[in-house]
Structure formats: C-alpha cells, structure tokens
Amino acid sequence: MGNQKELGVGQTTSLSRLSRYIDHTLLKPQSTYADIELLCREAAEWKFAAVAVNPTHVSLAAGLLANTGVKVAAAIGFPLGATTMATKAAETCEAIADGATEIDMVINIGALKSGDIKKAGADIAEVVLGAAGKALVKVIIETCYLSQEEKILACRLAKDAGAHFVKTSTGLGSGGATIEDVRLMHEIVRPDMGVKAAGGIRDAKTAWAMVEAGATRIGTSNSVAIVRGE
What we know:
Helix content is 46%, strand content 16%. It contains ten helices and eight strands.
C-alpha cells in the first residue's frame, strides 16, 4: 500500500491503527461522481471508519460501500448551521433513507451566541430525534467562533439532546481543531459521547495528538497521505 512498505514495522502498525479513527471526507461543492467513487475506493482499501459527504452524494456512496464495513456520514445544515430545525430534520431523514448511518450536523451557531439556548438545544434535538435508532449523530459546534463558555454549553446541549459525538469544526470556518478544544470537549462529554476532531489535520503526528487528547474520530480530506506516512 503506497509508501507503507518503506516504513518500519512499528510505524506501519501505528498508521494502520490510525485508519479506524478516520472519516475520509469530501465536501467540496464541485465534487463530481468520479470524485466520490475515488473517495469510496480509498475508504474501502484503507478501512477508514466512514466517508463524510454532502447529502446529494449519500446514495452513491452507500451503494459503493455496501458490505465493506465503511459507514456513510451525511453533512447536515452544512456548513453554516443556519438552516431551520425543520430543514435539518428533513435533510437527516432523507440522508438516512438514502443510506447514511451517521449524521454530522452543524449547530445553530447564531442562536447559541445570542443566548437563545432553548432554540440551540432544540435544533440538535430535532436531528437526534430524526436519526433515532437509525444513525449516529455528530454535533459540529464550530469552536473557532465560540468562547470557552459557549464551547462548554454547546457540548452540554449536545449531550442533553442524546447525540453521540461532538465535533470541533466544519473545516470551512476561520479555524480548525486544536488540542485544547479536543481536550475540553472530551472532559465535558465523557464517558457517554465521542469527540471528532476535524479541520486542519493533515499528518499522522497531528492526528495521533488529537487521539491522545481524547478524539475518537478524525475528520480529514488528507486521509490517505496520513496513513501512508507522507
């Protein structure tokens, strides 16, 4: 597999272990069907945890990954989180019908920062309800826009709503995952929820640092290079 044959046995094993944490991600608006097909081939070859795609590509990805063990995650309310609760719930239900078994939803950032905690919490709860028994829900809180207090509150809202993960970033905000944020989020939600670190993770050293800080998933579009040790 690529450059792995040039690595030491210990490093090869370490990189192989890292693959199970990775959500192989392609969310560019210009992504073609051929791009999604390549994403899925890579995910199956390297045994990544999941692919993360926009809802329009879920059906294609689910068909390509059937019986591979690789899950399909749909990005909901992406990337701004500013669509309505009803829209996010409908997106969630449609994505699940198309084959998604994981949902990565963006919170209503504006509601949270306005102090409208009821609306911010209900926004998450609607997606969790729509996914209940059918898909895991990862709640993207977009840490780069939040104060420390808002990060804590967002994690607690996700936990109270019954979500399965909190996630640092969309990868399209003004900043991505940091060790400090992953550690904070892990402290708040453990042991009931996972933490997904996403945004700016481009090499194995950074990915492992996130895992050591408490991440149980890594979202990256640089997945193959990471597990090849490039």
